[in-house]
Amino acid sequence: MNEARLGILLLSTTAPEQLSELAGRCEGFGFDEVWLAEDYFFYGGLSSAALVLAATERIRVGLGILSCVARHPAVTAMEISSLERSFPGRLMSGVGHGVPAWVRQMGLTPKSPMRALEEAVTGIRNVLTNTEPYTAEGEYFTFQDITLFHPPSTDVPLYLGVIGKKGCELAGRIADGNILSVLAPTEYVTWARELGQQGMKQAGRDGSFSVPTYVLTAVDEDRDVARAAVRESLAFYLDALGPTPLTGAIGINDAVAELSAGGYEALVEGMPEDWIDRLAISGTPEEVARRIEQYWAAGADSVILSPQPADEVGRQLELIAAEVLPRLTR
């Protein structure tokens, strides 16, 4: 089995002033990681990461994902370096395309999203690691004699946040891992990890490849209550995303397309029970613990729980810490 870590995603609907307290509770409960999501236009990703790092002592803090076009890569590198120097070894940063609708709102949609992403992540890594001024002229980003006055004191892990075959292979070529989105079943986790490892080999890179995986999660002594909470969240994401390689990994894209045509309510009412079993983690503490271990076994070195419903995150944290953590074997 790969390294087995357990994290909590603090959804972007969380008020910024609540992040420090919730992160402190996660650390106190014994979770390994806290993850944040820079969704536009909710809390700021880098500023929130700073809040969480300052409010905690040991827990690792993941940021997934920053849109590659929302900031110049050199500025992103500068921000990452500042946080890494202040809190060595605790920051994990993810970069991706960004949700297309939000990127369009800012007039930043690139003609070639994959090319823009590759330029951005390659630039971030070079600015973070080069001891000499970095110069490069790309299709989307220009770097002219850029050097960080305060370079990072340790290596900084950089992840992509992409889906699909090309994206997963690119993650292996240029990044240390790939942050997998909610709706990723265990079959997709295994597939994405293998593609990332193939990408590493293609690029002649050594080392391990990480696949932190977000999973919608609800735990309750009454399994029907937990499954109802996850069902509504699954319907929301399936309605927003439609058929993707995530759901394609278990052969349900045609059914997703058919149900999605009726909108959110049709998904809530018509979603087969099997989808809840395969696309989420829900049920009694024993069932939730067993499902977390299935994700670890599939290759998710870090399982990042997204507590549902979102307005009961405190209660979910307490239940998971008290009833699920003791049942895990790792």
Description:
With 330 residues, this protein is of the alpha/beta class. Helix content is 49%, strand content 17%. The protein has a single domain, classed as Alpha-Beta Barrel (TIM Barrel), CATH 3.20.20.30. The strands form 2 sheets. It has a 9-stranded parallel β-sheet. A two-stranded antiparallel sheet has the order 5-6. The protein is globular and about 60 Å long. Pfam families: Bac_luciferase.
- List SSEs in N-to-C order: EHEHEHEHHEEEHEHEHHHHHEHEH
Please estimate the helix content.
40-55%
Structure class: alpha/beta
Note the quaternary state here.
single chain
Radius of gyration: 19 Å
Which residues sit in consecutive blocks of at least 5 with pLDDT less than 50?
A: none
How many domains? The number is 1
Main β-sheet, spatial strand arrangement: 8-7-4-3-2-1-11-9-10
Distance between the termini: 9 Å
What would the principal axes of the Cα set say about the shape? Answer: globular
By DSSP (H or I, 4+ residues per run), the number of helices equals 14
Fraction of residues in β-strands:
15-25%
Number of strands: 11
Précis, in short:
This protein is α/β, with parallel strands linked by helices. It has helices at 16-29, 45-55, 73-86, 100-105, 113-129, 165-174, 186-202, 223-241, 245-248, 253-260, 263-270, 273-279, 285-298, 313-324, and strands at 5-10, 33-36, 60-67, 91-96, 134-137, 142-146, 158-161, 177-178, 213-219, 281-283, 302-307.
Q: Which secondary structure elements does this structure contain, and how are they paired or packed?
A:
Layout: E1 5-10, H1 16-29, E2 33-36, H2 45-55, E3 60-67, H3 73-86, E4 91-96, H4 100-105, H5 113-129, E5 134-137, E6 142-146, E7 158-161, H6 165-174, E8 177-178, H7 186-202, E9 213-219, H8 223-241, H9 245-248, H10 253-260, H11 263-270, H12 273-279, E10 281-283, H13 285-298, E11 302-307, H14 313-324
Parallel strand pairs: 1-2, 1-11, 2-3, 3-4, 4-7, 7-8, 9-10, 9-11
Antiparallel strand pairs: 5-6
